[in-house]
């Protein structure tokens, strides 16, 4: 029989990624004790296999393109990227996949780390199995929070499982750039990795059953599509991979639904995410293991009928609740949830009104996202399609970003576009999308306008500095005025 022990804390968090870390941090800041359970690296997917390493893979090429878009700087640049140096910089951002720095942060924050795989075994009870087979039962006085994130989804394509496909993890941690890379999936991960590996010298083929970047405005996906094709990426859009195999030489062969065949050295699967909920003991609570967790507006877990669990002691934050599969929104949820749990424990009244301190309103009204392709895509709030589907009466205002003086100075032959979506009944901004080089830094102004529900008449008085790309706000308002 393995040895076992028991410890008690105010809050127990399963998952030490950015979401779990933020929940625990806010709980401790609120005067409670917290333990965090993790069986992999402290810091989670974002730190080691997603946000940080993938953006490091993309950044050098983006800087090189920016230099080459200016005549004098472009003349000064000779040669191309050194993939080894790109990978070395990536390694620095992942701390060589060593989590000692993040463990030190937990210690400094007063958060107890329990290493091992956690499973819910009773009311507010999590049993942790350690690598040596011993177990510890960690009991929570107030709440258990599931923040276990998500993993890459592998579609049921014949032969795919047998070829050892890459997911975002293998792509982010790559040691040798393959000569030929096939990518299945045209969403954010597929499009970003097509950009990165093409920049690093691979011959990239991307297969998508939809257009590129179906989650954003079509004009943004079209500009990314054009740029990838110009870079030499072979795109097979609106088709599916029906069979995958690896021959004796090690080459991977993909058969597509239109009869086309693709040959590559490796295949990366980027077809969405699946929740990390299979082995958490959810069956003890009447929940279905492996499913996304449904939550109410307080992030309390609901049963399969949509009813809160008795006493509402179990919560889910981040990817597992499927509200917004983005690290920054998971951290936003975590801050609100951690503060709410601490407030409840103190007997304080919660502010769950729209935009209240303990609410997570932005997940529905102001989801922000930057896609680090060439060109970048930045979006917040509703798309035109999403706003129409929600039954809102809207105005769509488009502007050529390349016609803005700041953009023309930023890069020769700058190409980009912006769109704002206006709620006609309230005359406030509810959606914004920009595509073009370096548009990521434009996003927060739109986010503030949407969250603040700033009337367009007031936005006229937010004077953009000249000559910057932010002049686009003046041009959008002028266009809106002329079009009405």
From TrEMBL:
GO molecular function terms attached to this record: dihydrolipoyl dehydrogenase (NADH) activity; flavin adenine dinucleotide binding
Positions annotated to bind FAD: 55, 118, 148-150, 319
Keyword Cytoplasm belongs to the record: no
Chain positions recorded as NAD(+) binding sites: 185-192, 272
UniProt keyword Nucleotide-binding present: yes
InterPro entries: Class-I_Pyr_Nuc-Dis_Oxidored (IPR050151), FAD/NAD-bd_sf (IPR036188), FAD/NAD-binding_dom (IPR023753), FAD/NAD-linked_Rdtase_dimer_sf (IPR016156), Pyr_nuc-diS_OxRdtase (IPR001100), Pyr_nucl-diS_OxRdtase_dimer (IPR004099)
Essential cofactor(s): FAD
GO term, biological process aspect, one: 2-oxoglutarate metabolic process
EC number: 1.8.1.4
Disulfide links within the chain: 46-51
FAD/NAD(P)-binding domain: residues covered: 9-331
Pfam families: Pyr_redox_2, Pyr_redox_dim
Keyword annotations: FAD, Flavoprotein, NAD, Nucleotide-binding, Oxidoreductase
Family to which the UniProt record says this protein belongs: Belongs to the class-I pyridine nucleotide-disulfide oxidoreductase family.
Entries under PANTHER family matching the protein: DIHYDROLIPOYL DEHYDROGENASE, MITOCHONDRIAL, DISULFIDE OXIDOREDUCTASE
Protein name: Dihydrolipoamide dehydrogenase
Protein species of origin: Kribbella shirazensis
């Amino acid at each position: 029989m393995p040895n076992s022990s028991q410890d008690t804390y105010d809050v127990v968090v399963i998952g030490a990624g950015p979401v779990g870390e933020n929940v625990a941090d806010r709980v401790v800041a609120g005067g409670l004790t917290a333990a965090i359970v993790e069986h992999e690296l402290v810091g989670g997917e974002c730190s080691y296999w997603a946000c940080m390493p993938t953006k490091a893979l993309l950044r050098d090429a983006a800087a090189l393109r920016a230099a080459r878009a200016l005549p004098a700087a472009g003349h000064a640049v000779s040669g191309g990227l050194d993939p080894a140096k790109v990978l070395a910089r990536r390694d620095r951002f992942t701390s060589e996949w060593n989590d000692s720095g993040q463990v030190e942060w937990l210690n400094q924050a007063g958060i107890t780390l329990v290493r091992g795989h956690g499973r819910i075994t009773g009311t507010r009870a999590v049993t942790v199995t350690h690598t040596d087979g011993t177990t510890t039962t960690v009991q929570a006085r107030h709440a258990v929070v599931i923040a276990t994130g998500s993993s890459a989804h592998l579609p049921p394509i014949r032969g795919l499982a047998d070829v050892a496909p890459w997911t975002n993890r293998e792509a982010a941690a790559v040691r040798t750039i393959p000569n030929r890379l096939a990518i299945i999936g045209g969403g954010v991960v597929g499009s970003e990795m097509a950009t990165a590996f093409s920049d690093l010298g691979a011959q990239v083929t991307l297969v998508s059953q939809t257009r590129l970047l179906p989650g954003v405005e079509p004009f943004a996906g079209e500009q990314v599509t054009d740029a990838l094709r110009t870079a030499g990426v072979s795109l097979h859009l609106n088709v599916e991979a029906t069979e995958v195999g690896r021959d004796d030489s090690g080459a991977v062969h993909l058969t597509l639904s239109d009869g086309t065949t693709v040959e590559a050295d490796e295949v990366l699967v980027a077809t969405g995410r699946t929740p990390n909920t299979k082995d958490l003991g959810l069956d003890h609570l009447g929940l279905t293991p492996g499913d996304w967790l449904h939550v109410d507006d307080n992030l309390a877990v609901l049963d399969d009928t949509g009813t809160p669990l008795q006493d509402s002691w179990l919560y889910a934050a981040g990817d597992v609740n499927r509200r917004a599969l983005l690290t920054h929104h998971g951290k936003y949820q975590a801050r609100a949830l951690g503060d709410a749990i601490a407030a409840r424990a103190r007997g304080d009244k919660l502010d769950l009104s729209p935009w209240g301190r303990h609410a997570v309103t932005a997940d529905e009204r102001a989801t922000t996202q930057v896609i680090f392709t060439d060109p970048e895509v930045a979006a917040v709030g509703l798309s035109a399609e999403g706003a129409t589907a929600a039954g809102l009466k809207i105005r769509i205002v488009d502007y050529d970003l390349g016609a803005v003086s700041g953009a023309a100075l930023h890069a020769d032959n700058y190409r980009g576009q912006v769109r704002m979506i206006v709620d006609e009944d309230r005359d406030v901004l509810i959606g914004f999308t920009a595509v073009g080089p370096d548009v990521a830094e434009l996003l927060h102004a739109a986010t503030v306008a949407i969250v603040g529900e700033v009337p367009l008449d007031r936005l006229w008085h937010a004077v953009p500095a000249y000559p910057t790309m932010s002049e686009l706000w003046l041009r959008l308002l002028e266009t809106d005025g002329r079009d009405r």
